[in-house]
Write a structure and sequence with these properties.
6-stranded parallel beta sheet, Aldehyde Oxidoreductase, domain 3, 4-stranded antiparallel beta sheet, elongated, about 280 residues, 2 domains, 11 helices, TIM Barrel, alpha/beta
């Protein structure tokens, strides 16, 4: 499914989030709880979900110091039911209370993406279509959000513009034609890179195939149009359906025979799931 690497970028993101939430200090906790107080807190799901983001959740408390420990009941990728215990956190009450919101924000957001992705993957089960994400991610969160997509059973598209050649309508307009764009890409792109071209109709498909594009992105087609495109392409290139893809419609595109369905929806429209953290013992 995936592995979350706590890179310097991720740790810097955690530090930024903590600085945003703590400001000049947690004045409520400092005023009401003696510094030496030790506490245990239970983290529970308040709805059914696919868990994602537990490594970054624990890293938030590690960043605050104070010898916080975790008894994990669930792991990333597991299905968690409403009321299920995810982990039990033990440590200084100051660290638990000051880190609670930041840690939960990461866990709720990433679990929400994994849960939505799993739903979409289920919608295309029994077909050959793979669900993939896009670059429509929260700025700075891309590595985390794409990790959550993998945890939900989806696949990652490009992480950045340097990862692959994707010739879209604006590139085609600026280059003058599909043929010009593909020919120039062949000259400059690494020989290991596939060349993907966005197409909107039969004529553009014909031009892209003649230019020997490796993947055709079927942009904003209906399922019927996608099926016709797949028939026209007839295995000469891989196919990717894209544009306004939703969980309710992707099954029709999968049955049309496309190889991939790319969904910005996985990241730009996923809601955070509901998870809470309650102090059990002072």
């Amino acid at each position: 499914m995936g592995y979350m690497e706590l890179t310097p970028h991720v740790m810097a993101l955690i530090d930024l989030a903590l600085a945003e939430d703590l400001g000049g200090g947690d004045i409520t906790t400092q005023a009401t709880i003696p510094e030496e107080t030790w506490a245990v807190a239970a983290v529970r799901a308040k709805e059914a979900l696919i868990l994602a983001g537990l490594p970054v959740f624990t890293a938030v408390f590690d960043r605050l110091g104070g010898q916080v420990t975790f008894e994990e009941e669930k792991r990333d990728g597991e299905t968690v039911g409403a009321g299920d215990l995810i982990t039990r956190v033990s440590g200084p009450a100051h660290a638990l209370l000051s880190g609670e919101r930041t840690a939960l924000n990461f866990l709720m957001r990433l679990s929400g993406i994994a849960t939505l992705t799993a739903r979409c993957v289920e919608e295309v089960s029994g077909t050959n279509a793979a669900i993939v994400d896009t670059r429509k991610t929260t700025p700075g969160w891309r590595a985390l959000e794409k990790y959550a997509v993998r945890i939900g059973g989806g696949r990652n598209h490009r992480f950045s513009l340097s990862d692959g050649v994707l010739i879209k309508d604006n590139h085609i307009t600026a280059a003058g034609s599909i043929n010009n764009a593909v020919a120039r890409a062949r000259l400059r792109a690494p020989h290991t890179a596939r060349i993907e071209v966005e197409v909107k109709n039969s004529a553009e498909i014909t031009e892209a195939l003649a230019a020997h594009a490796d993947i055709l992105l079927l942009d904003n087609m209906t399922p019927g149009q996608a099926a016709a495109a797949v028939a026209q392409i007839s295995g000469r290139a891989l196919t990717e359906a894209s544009g306004n893809m939703r969980p309710e419609t992707i099954g029709d595109y999968a049955r049309a025979g496309v190889d991939f369905i790319s969904m910005g929806y996985l990241t730009h429209s996923a809601r955070s799931v509901d998870i809470n953290m309650k102090i059990e013992t002072p």
